[in-house]
C-alpha cells in the first residue's frame, strides 16, 4: 500500500456511520493510490484491494490526500469539499446518496 493510501486507512475505517449497500473507491490524486470501502455487509470493510464481485458498480471519489484526510477524519464536511470542486464524484450515484459520514450529521 502506498504511503498516501496508508495515511487514509485509519480515518476511513471509522468515517462511515452505517453500511450503505454499495462500494466506494476513494482515489488519491497525488499518487493514484486508492482505498475501497465495502458497505454491502453488516460491517463496513476498508482495504487497498477491490472487494469481491464489485465489477464496475461503485462510486468514485477523487481528490488530493489532504482533502480526503480532512473529510474522512470528520474535520471537513464532504458537501463543502464537493461544492468547492476539491472532490470529484463519478460512478454509481445511488451509492453516494446512501453514504452517511461522521461529522456530517
Number of strands: 5
Structural class: alpha+beta
Strand order of the largest sheet: 3-2-1-4-5
| Distance linking N and C termini | 31 Å
The value of Rg in angstroms is 12 Å
Low-confidence stretches: none
Helicity, as a percent range: 25-40%
Overall residue-averaged pLDDT value? 90
Q: How many DSSP H or I helices? A: 4
Structural shape: globular
Q: State the order of secondary-structure elements, H for helix, E for strand.
A: HEEEEHHEH
Determine the strand fraction and express it as a percent band: 15-25%
- Main pleated-sheet profile: 5 strands, mixed
Structure description:
- There is one protein chain.
- By secondary structure, the chain is α+β, with helices and mostly antiparallel strands.
- 31% of the residues lie in helices and 22% in strands.
- The chain contains 4 helices and 5 strands.
- Strands 3-2-1-4-5 form a 5-stranded mixed sheet.
- Strand 1 and strand 2 form a beta hairpin.
- Helix 1 packs parallel to helix 2.
- The chain is globular.
